[in-house]
Every structure is written in structure tokens, then in C-alpha cells.
């Protein structure tokens, strides 16, 4: 009995030394085990079975041997190459190392053993490792899943990139076709206009014939004998019927009207180059250009967006045009409305002062250009001829001509004295968004949605030069006060400066991506202002190249202009307000 009790105590001592832990608290458990019985280690010899009595399973021959009679060196080499390729493919595959799963019986046995031996900390570590192994396997599976998902997303992205490139190439292949279609459209518009003229002429002839027939029906005393060829002396004394008398009176009346109209002669374009009226405003200042403007006042003038602001050439007043079909004369600096003009049936797009400052020209979406007497506020003349909305208008420095540009891809030069269109400028293939006379000359500058600027001779109507460089629709273009440089802005916010004497680009400044709606120089020509679609007024110092931003508009800024002394800046926005900066 003593031997039976000593053996478990010795085993427990050995376990204490091996595990490095005391089992004093587990002696009661050991005594209970000793009471049940002792554990013994027995050596068992396993005899190997005789190989003669073992039945082997026949394995089919799967080698890639070539049947007899079909040996071929080329086939043998091909087969060896295929086997080498298969071996490389198998080697390239990522094979996860196989882990021998621990049978649940062994885990349960270990857990029960640790519980019986009272090894709670070892049991906790064992169970924690088992749980950690399960979490690791789960995390590896999730990692593999996300890795496959990432590869699929990358493949889809590459496919979309290839599709996008293919679509760009496809779109580029259509550009020549679109250009040809624009040219055909322009040709068809010309043919349509000619057809309309011929139709009007035919309608006039038919109306004249109908009037003649009506007069013939009324004149019952008409006789065929009265229509005879007689000498001039006898024809004067020949009797006239009512029809001939009516026709003769109508002819005389038309001749008199034609003579009256012919008495109003067309204006003549100045042959000599006139002095630039803006040179008197130009001052060569050695001090830095003023760009530190701050918001000073806000004038609420229109219920709809402000489309244009212009300064009076002599007085401290400005005129604002809005999409509410009104133009207003505003006194400065208080911003009180002195005069309101109305008469257009659609939104106003632009306005321009007569060189003397006593007249105003306005363009509108109703396809007309109107001239106004500012002393009374009355419309004195209306020019009609455009087929679509008119975007811009400008006065010639002599005051006898007004030019306009339209959505119908044409520009027109109007004679104020003869009250007719003197010339139509063809050449742009898209909307002509801006037009301006070079100060003191017969040269016109236009900017178009076809991404080009064109220089025209107003006397002949010929396009002298086209300027290419913009990648988007040109929204506005203007001259410097000295006239030696051109500034233009496009629908993507790019500003370009051009040398007007050489007709070459100087520099390109990108302040986008918001569109540039209008550009204007100050009186010194050293600062350029642009009204942007995001409500920011960009000021470019041409000498230093620095760009300054004026933040104050709550919505889109449509127009911007400097005062004559450069101390004030005025801008109009889509909220119907005019903001003063000083």
C-alpha cells in the first residue's frame, strides 16, 4: 500500500519540475487518484505483418509512352515540352502548406487530463491557442477572399480604362465629320437665305400681278384698242383708261418714295486712321498697379441676372443691362437709378455707349439691336436681321456704325444714317459671342464658340486673320486701351493674351475650371479683370504676373468693368446685383 502511495507523489514531483509550477494546491486531487489506483507504463512490441500475406492493388500504367510503331522524334520532343510546361505551371501555383488537423478526440483527452490534474492555466493557454488558430484560419480565408475581390476590381478598372481610351479614339474619328457637317450647315444657311430672298421677290411679283388684274376687273371701259404702239408724241395725247392711270400713279408714287429714300445716303467709313480716344486715358505710372480692391457696396438693380455693365465715356454714371429686359442708368457713387429703359421683348445681352455718350446701343435675345436717346430714354431705331439671339454690340469710333454678333454664326454692320445693314460677316461656324471695334479704326474683333478669334475689315467684310489656340468656346475678347494687345477668355477659364501687331499668342493663364464670362482692362492697360462662373473676380497684374482673387459674389459673376481712374471696380452677378469694389 505504501508503494502505491509513493508512486503518485513521485510522478507529481516530476511534473512539477517539468512544468515549472507548484502543485501544492493539487495534492488533494493526487491523493484521490492514488486511492483509485496507480498508473503504469508498459512496453508493447508490435510485430510487423508478413509482406507475403499482403495483397497489393494493381496500379494502372498512366505514363505517356508512345505506342510501338508510332515513334516520332517531333512528337516525343513536343510531349517532353508539354510535360515541362505542366511542371512549371504546377510549380508556379501557390500551394498552402497542409496542416495536420488535430483530431477532436485528442483535444478532448488533453482537456480532460488537464482538468483532472488541476492545470487550469495550461488548460486556458491550450484553449486560447485553439481559438487563436481558428481565428487565424478565418482571417486567412477572409484575406484570400478580399485578395480575389481586389484582383477582380483591378481587372474591371483596366477594362474600363481600355473602353474609355477606345471611346476617345472613336470620338476623335468623328471630329472631321462634325467639321464637314458644320460647313454643310453653313452652306445650307446661305442657300436658305438666298431662297428666302427669291421667295420674297416672287411674292412681290405675284402681289403686283394680282393688283393689276384687280384694276383690270374694275376698269370696265378698258378696250384692247387702247393698247397700241404709237409714237411718243401721239402716246402723250392717247387716252388712258382707269387701269393705266392707276398703274402710272402707283409708279410715280414708288419713284418718289425711292427718291426720298435715296436722299438718305449711306455713311462713309473713315479712310484715315483716327486718333485712339483711349490714349488720353492711358497713364504710364511707375507706381504698382492697384489690385487690392475690397467690397464697398452692393446695388440691387435687377430681378434677374445682370448681363452687362458699361461706364459712361465722360460722366460718373454706369448702365447695367439685365435679363429682366430692362437697362438702367445708375449714378455713382450712391447707386441711385436715374433712368430706366424698356422696349425689348426678351433678355438683354450687351450694351455700348455712343462715343459722344448721348446714345446707347443694346442687343437682346429677341434678335434685334436697338438705339436709344439717353436724354429722353426713347428708342430711336431698331435693327432687325439676325435669325437668332444677338450676343454683343459695339459702336464705331465715328459714331455712324454699329456692329453686332449673333447666335446665328454671323456678325452684321449697321449704318445708323441709312438705317440698314451694310455688311454681313460670314466665317465662323458656331455662335459669335463677342464683337468689338479696334479704337479709331475700321477693324473688328470677334470671338466665337468655334474656339477661334477673327479680325475683320469692316469696309469689305473680309476676314483678315483668324487666331487659333483656345480649346473651348471663346466667351469674350477685348483690346487694351493702347490697342497693342488682345485678351480673351473661354468656357474653361483659360485667359490668353495676343500680340495684335504680330497676331501671335503671348501667354496663356489657366484660372479654371469655372468659365470666364468677360474680360476687361483698366485704363492703364496693366491690370486685367475676369468675371468667372464661380463668382470670383480674377485680377491679373500684367507686369508682375500675379493673380489676385476678389471673393464677394454669392453666385456666378457675369460682367466686370473698371472706372476711368482705376480706383473702383464694378461687377454684376446672376443674383441681379452690381457690386462696387474700391
From TrEMBL:
Q: Where does the source fall among the domains of life?
A: Eukaryota
Q: Where is the composition biased (Basic and acidic residues)?
A: 246-268
What keyword terms does UniProt attach to this protein?
Cell projection, Cilium, Cilium biogenesis/degradation, Coiled coil, Cytoplasm, Cytoskeleton, Flagellum, Phosphoprotein, Repeat, WD repeat
InterPro entries, sorted: WD-F-box_domain-protein, WD40/YVTN_repeat-like_dom_sf, WD40_PAC1, WD40_repeat_CS, WD40_repeat_dom_sf, WD40_rpt
Answer yes or no on keyword Cytoplasm. yes
Q: Which locations, inside or outside the cell, does it occupy?
A: Cytoplasm, Cytoskeleton, Flagellum axoneme
Q: Which SUPFAM superfamilies match?
A: WD40 repeat-like
Annotated segments matching region Disordered: 233-271
Q: Which Gene3D superfamilies does its entry note?
A: YVTN repeat-like/Quinoprotein amine dehydrogenase
Pfam families per record: WD40 (PF00400)
The stretches annotated as WD repeats are: 341-382, 383-424, 425-466, 467-501, 550-582
Q: Name one GO cellular component term.
A: axonemal central apparatus
Described by its record, this protein's role is as follows: Necessary for sperm flagellar function. Plays a role in motile ciliogenesis. May help to recruit STK36 to the cilium or apical surface of the cell to initiate subsequent steps of construction of the central pair apparatus of motile cilia.
The record's subunit annotation is: Interacts with SPAG6 and STK36.
Q: Per its UniProt record, what PANTHER family does this chain match? A: SPERM-ASSOCIATED ANTIGEN 16 PROTEIN, WD40 REPEAT PF20
Q: What is this protein called?
A: Sperm-associated antigen 16 protein
What organism is listed for this UniProt entry? Answer: Panthera pardus (Leopard)
Amino acid at each position: 500500500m505504501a508503494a502505491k502511495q509513493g508512486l503518485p507523489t513521485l510522478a507529481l514531483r516530476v511534473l512539477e519540475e517539468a512544468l515549472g509550477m507548484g502543485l501544492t494546491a493539487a495534492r488533494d486531487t493526487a491523493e484521490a487518484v492514488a486511492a483509485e489506483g496507480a498508473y503504469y507504463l508498459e512496453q508493447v512490441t508490435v510485430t510487423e505483418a508478413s509482406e507475403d500475406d499482403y495483397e497489393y492493388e494493381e496500379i494502372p500504367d498512366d505514363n505517356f509512352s508512345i505506342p510501338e510503331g508510332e515513334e516520332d522524334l517531333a512528337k516525343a520532343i513536343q510531349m517532353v515540352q508539354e510535360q515541362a510546361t505542366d511542371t512549371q505551371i504546377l510549380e508556379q501555383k501557390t500551394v498552402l502548406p497542409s496542416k495536420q488537423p488535430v483530431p477532436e478526440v485528442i483535444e478532448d483527452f488533453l482537456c480532460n487530463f488537464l482538468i483532472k490534474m488541476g492545470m487550469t492555466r495550461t488548460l486556458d493557454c491550450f484553449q486560447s491557442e485553439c481559438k487563436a488558430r481558428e481565428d487565424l484560419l478565418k482571417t486567412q480565408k477572409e484575406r484570400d477572399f478580399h485578395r480575389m475581390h481586389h484582383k477582380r476590381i483591378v481587372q474591371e478598372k483596366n477594362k474600363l480604362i481600355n473602353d474609355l481610351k477606345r471611346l476617345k479614339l472613336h470620338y476623335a474619328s468623328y471630329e472631321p465629320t462634325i467639321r464637314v457637317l458644320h460647313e454643310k450647315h453653313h452652306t445650307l444657311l446661305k442657300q436658305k437665305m438666298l431662297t428666302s430672298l427669291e421667295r420674297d421677290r416672287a411674292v412681290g411679283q405675284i402681289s403686283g400681278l394680282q393688283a393689276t388684274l384687280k384694276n383690270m376687273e374694275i376698269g370696265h371701259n378698258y378696250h384692247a384698242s387702247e393698247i397700241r404702239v404709237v409714237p411718243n408724241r401721239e402716246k402723250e395725247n392717247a387716252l388712258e383708261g382707269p387701269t393705266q392711270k392707276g398703274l402710272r400713279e402707283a409708279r410715280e408714287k414708288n419713284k418718289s418714295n425711292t427718291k426720298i429714300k435715296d436722299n438718305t445716303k449711306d455713311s462713309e467709313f473713315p479712310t484715315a486712321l483716327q486718333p485712339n480716344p483711349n490714349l488720353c486715358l492711358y497713364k504710364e505710372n511707375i507706381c504698382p498697379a492697384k489690385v487690392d480692391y475690397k467690397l464697398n457696396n452692393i446695388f440691387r438693380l435687377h430681378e434677374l441676372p445682370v448681363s452687362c455693365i458699361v461706364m459712361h465715356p465722360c460722366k460718373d454714371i454706369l448702365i447695367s443691362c439685365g435679363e429682366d429686359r430692362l437697362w438702367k442708368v445708375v449714378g455713382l457713387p450712391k447707386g441711385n437709378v436715374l433712368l430706366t429703359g424698356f422696349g425689348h421683348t426678351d433678355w438683354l445681352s450687351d450694351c455700348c455707349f455712343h462715343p459722344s455718350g448721348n446714345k446707347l446701343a443694346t442687343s437682346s435675345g429677341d434678335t434685334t439691336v436697338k438705339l436709344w436717346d439717353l436724354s429722353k430714354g426713347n428708342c430711336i431705331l431698331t435693327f432687325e436681321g439676325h435669325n437668332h439671339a444677338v450676343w454683343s454690340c459695339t459702336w464705331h469710333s465715328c459714331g455712324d456704325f454699329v456692329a453686332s454678333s449673333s447666335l446665328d454664326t454671323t456678325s452684321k454692320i449697321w449704318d445708323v444714317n441709312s438705317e440698314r445693314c451694310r455688311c454681313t460677316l460670314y466665317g465662323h461656324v458656331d455662335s459669335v459671342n463677342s464683337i468689338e471695334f479696334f479704337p479709331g479704326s475700321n477693324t473688328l474683333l470677334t470671338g466665337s464658340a468655334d474656339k477661334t478669334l477673327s479680325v475683320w475689315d469692316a469696309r469689305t467684310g473680309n476676314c483678315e486673320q483668324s487666331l487659333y489656340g483656345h480649346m473651348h468656346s471663346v466667351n469674350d475678347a477685348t483690346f487694351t486701351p493702347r490697342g497693342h494687345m488682345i485678351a480673351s477668355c473661354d468656357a474653361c477659364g483659360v485667359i490668353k493674351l495676343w500680340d495684335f501687331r504680330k497676331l501671335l499668342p503671348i501667354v496663356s493663364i489657366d484660372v479654371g475650371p469655372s468659365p470666364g464670362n468677360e474680360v476687361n482692362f483698366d485704363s492703364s492697360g496693366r491690370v486685367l479683370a475676369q468675371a468667372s462662373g464661380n463668382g470670383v473676380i480674377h485680377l491679373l497684374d500684367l507686369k508682375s504676373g500675379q493673380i489676385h482673387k476678389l471673393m464677394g459674389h454669392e453666385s456666378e459673376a457675369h460682367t466686370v468693368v473698371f472706372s476711368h481712374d482705376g480706383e473702383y471696380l464694378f461687377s454684376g452677378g446672376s443674383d441681379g446685383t452690381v457690386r462696387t469694389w474700391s
